[in-house]
Design goal:
Elements lengths: L9 E9 L5 E4 L5 E4 L7 H7 L7 E6 L13 E5 L13 E3 L12 E7 L2 E5 L9 E11 L3 H10 L47 E2 L2
Length: 207
Amino acid sequence: MAESIRKGMLVTISVLMADMTGKTLEETPPEGIVYLHGNGDIFPKLEAALEGRFAGEGFSIHLEPEDAFGEYDAEAIKLIPAENFAHPEVLEPGAVVDEVPGEAPDGRTWRVTDIAEGMVVLEANHPLAGIGLQFAVKVLDVHEPTESELEAMEDDGTESLVPPFLKIADRIVSEDDEDDTPYESAGALEPDDSSMARLARPPRIVR
């Protein structure tokens, strides 16, 4: 008997994400991606729409900005002198920093969007913030995870299975970025007793 999607099932889906004009923004490879249903690793409304479906089913769903990458926040843009950064010489559009010079880290990741006349523009909005999105989804496989699959997920984390465009990202990082050491600004605060002091590193560059 075919299995339906329910909490704890390992589900393979193919997804195409487009904007409201129909322009394709992202899509999974033909073989799809795997996620653990009910674990909160994909957009909640998308996960809810998958509940109860079977392999072979397809559907479309529209997500408003608040259900995807959030509303655009005009306050999430800052103009900072380049000299305030520990490594201003390597800053370029696309670089990612974990804190704003002179401010306490607030958990957000900031992208360098522009550099001009010695000033750096930082933005914490996701590139797709404020945009309604359409998803075309097909369920490719549904099964209970095997013991080896569960062990692999315990080692790597279930969120590692899901591409960034299917989940609310609180960090913007390159898929091939293996260095999780945050970039530190010249105005970084001293680490507290629960963390180790970090050496200043150049920012990550997202291509």
